[in-house]
Amino acid sequence: MKKLHKFILKSYAGPLAMTFFISVFILVMQGLWRYADDIVGKGLDFSVMLELLFYVALQVVPMALPLAILLAALMTFGNLGENYELTAIKASGVSLFRIMKPLVYLTLFVSVVAFWFSNNVLPVANLKFYTLLYSVRQARPELEIKEKVYYDGVDGFRIKVDHKNPKTGMMYDLIIHDHRDKVNRNVNVTMADSGKMDINDRMGVIQLTLYDGVTYDEKVALGNARMTEKSRQMYRHDEFTEQVVQVKVDGLDFSRVDESVFKTSDRMKNLAQLKHDTDSLLCVRDSITINMSQQSKTQQMRKTRHQYTSDSLYSAVIDTSKMISVDSVFLAFTDKQVSDVLEEALRQARVNKQYVDERLATYIEEQGKINRHEMEKHRKFAMPVACLLFFFIGAPLGAIIRKGGLGMPVVISVFFFIFYYVTDTFGAKCAREGYWPIWCGMWLSTVVLAIIGSFLTYKSATDSALFKSEAYQKVADKLKHRLMKMGHKQDESEENNVQQ
């Protein structure tokens, strides 16, 4: 390997590793913020939180890697240009493409690794993450009762506490409403001077120990029957010095959901699984179409034949040995029979419409699954290609602007990445909704990147002054001079017309 190639690789490897970990960190924080409401307050173990962080980090790699390649290429060639090292290398007869050659090979290798990661690692990470996230969402929040606010985290109860002692956990001036009776609510109220709450995760029980209070029960042995005015006079008043109440609560302990629940999703499959399941979904969709077509052709004919062959008027008016004419049958009916036939036809049309609507909804659902599977297949190839194209945007752009560091490169990288993300989201939505072909929507952003990368690479290879204000000033001056010249010619022609 030439010393120049080693120098270029060394200059590129450091920024690439740094920007990749920075991008992963930022995207992980953004992902955790997105799911903060589902995680915070669940009393999760530290190991569960670390597992969530790990799976989120794996999920954001397809977004972090292209951004890191773009930013690293911008920084590397920006630093080379800012320190006039790139100019010196070009002056020695080395073209830009030869300078980029080792980095192109490295980016190709990274793209291959990205494809392997997207096909083999990412589906497993998605399955693990969404299973764990669903399990966390199902877990009951921690029983954190705030002061002077009714808390309804315990099923069937509403608890209000005036104030608490954070050191001892003792609660004071409690009001507890028992709503376990769904018919007669607010008929059992307990008021206590103080109390404390203990949770038994193993048994799934909450134990309330209340002191110096009273319980008002306005129904006695009435079951769930709705109380009359006379029954409302019946109540029970119990005073107590100490009372222990145990409430069975489900979901106090964290339990994992079986992963098989989420294995049917397109995000949890590799290419082989996607192809196999797509073929199965196509068979299901086609069977829906065939069954709906056959049902539409035979159902009405069968019911019409059954109705008229059993009708005495049919055999009396129509000669069955000849071809049957529907019009002749209809004209032979009385007004009452015509009305009955029209009502029956309208009813049958509504039944057929309902059947078609139901089958059409099933068809649309299956087609949506097929679209998502096809999109996922294209996405596994689009991400590695995007890594390569981002390099061909960042490297020439860095050579043109000649600014290194984390200032200008970060601004430009964020701009291009947001543009890519918006374009990719727009194309994916059009493909998912069926407005565009799947390949067109999924490769829209890639085609746009290829055009931009080709343009910037050409401009950089030809040493174009793309971002120099002097070049644009010259163009503006030429345009201004041309407009002034055209104005003078128009004035001279008007003067000649006046003289004539």
What does the model show?
- A hairpin with a 6-residue loop joins β1 and β2.
- The protein has a five-stranded antiparallel sheet with strand order 1-2-3-4-5, with no helix packed on it.
- 64% of the residues lie in helices and 11% in strands.
- It is α+β, with helices and mostly antiparallel strands.
- The longest helix has 67 residues.
- α7 runs antiparallel to α10.
- The chain is extended and about 110 Å long.
- The protein has 14 helices and five strands.
What's the quick description here?
The chain is α+β, with helices and mostly antiparallel strands. Helix content is 64%, strand content 11%. A five-stranded antiparallel beta sheet has the order 1-2-3-4-5, with no helix packed on it.
What is the strand and helix layout of this fold?
Elements: H1 3-34, H2 36-39, H3 46-59, H4 61-82, H5 85-91, H6 96-138, E1 157-164, E2 171-178, E3 188-200, E4 205-217, E5 236-248, H7 271-309, H8 312-317, H9 326-331, H10 335-401, H11 408-433, H12 438-442, H13 444-461, H14 469-499
Antiparallel strand pairs: 1-2, 2-3, 3-4, 4-5
Tag the structure with descriptive keywords.
single chain, 500 residues, alpha+beta, five-stranded antiparallel beta sheet, 14 helices, extended
Mean pLDDT: 79
Please, how many helices?
14
Instruction: State the end-to-end CA separation.
Output: 80 Å
Largest sheet, order of strands side by side?
1-2-3-4-5
